[in-house]
Amino acid sequence: QLQLVESGGGLVQPGGSLRLSCAASGFTLDYYAIGWFRQAPGKEREGVSCISRGGGRTKYADSVKGRFTISRDNAKNTVYLQMNSLKPEDTAVYYCAAGRTAPLICALRGNEYDYWGQGTQVTVSS
């Protein structure tokens, strides 16, 4: 069974940090670009960051540039999203997704991805 599982969400104060993990089971992430997306209540899903299958290309939404860092450890079949300087507007359910792509390709469009996790809640509040 192909599965992506996110973890690491929670409640954090503004200015704090969290690290989200996206672990794959049932398949290897070696040939997949990974994207992180988020959806806040009443808002459309937003592409946050993505990383190409070898890690050589990354992209970030303007709203998180300089604060979030995406990385991957293919040996652990896991992708991470380090989130620093969190703001209340970062509050959302965060999802990871995997899409089989060519090297050095990743996208912040959800329709480029084939497999999705169930999401993890991130709440930034004092």
Summarize the structure.
The protein is mainly beta and 126 residues long. It is built from no helices and eleven strands.
Mind describing the biggest β-sheet?
7 strands, mixed
Order of helices and strands: EEEEEEEEEEE
Beta-strand fraction estimate: over 45%
The stretches of 5 or more residues where confidence is low (pLDDT under 50) are none
Radius of gyration: 13 Å
Helix/strand-derived category reads: mainly beta
Number of extended strands:
11
- Please give the count of helices: 0
| N/C terminus separation | 39 Å
Helix content: under 10%
Shape: globular
Average pLDDT metric: 96
Oligomer: single chain
Describe the structure.
The chain has 126 residues and is mainly β. It has strands at 3-7, 10-12, 18-25, 32-39, 46-51, 58-60, 68-73, 78-83, 92-100, 115-116, 120-124. Strands 2, 4, 5, 6, 9, 10 and 11 form a seven-stranded mixed sheet that branches. The chain has a four-stranded antiparallel sheet with strand order 1-3-8-7, with no helix packed on it. β4 and β5 (46-51) form a beta hairpin.
Write the layout of secondary structure elements.
Blueprint: E1 3-7, E2 10-12, E3 18-25, E4 32-39, E5 46-51, E6 58-60, E7 68-73, E8 78-83, E9 92-100, E10 115-116, E11 120-124
Parallel strand pairs: 2-11
Antiparallel strand pairs: 1-3, 3-8, 4-5, 4-9, 5-6, 7-8, 9-10, 9-11
Primary descriptors:
about 130 residues; mainly beta; seven-stranded mixed sheet; four-stranded antiparallel sheet; 11 strands; about 50% strand; globular
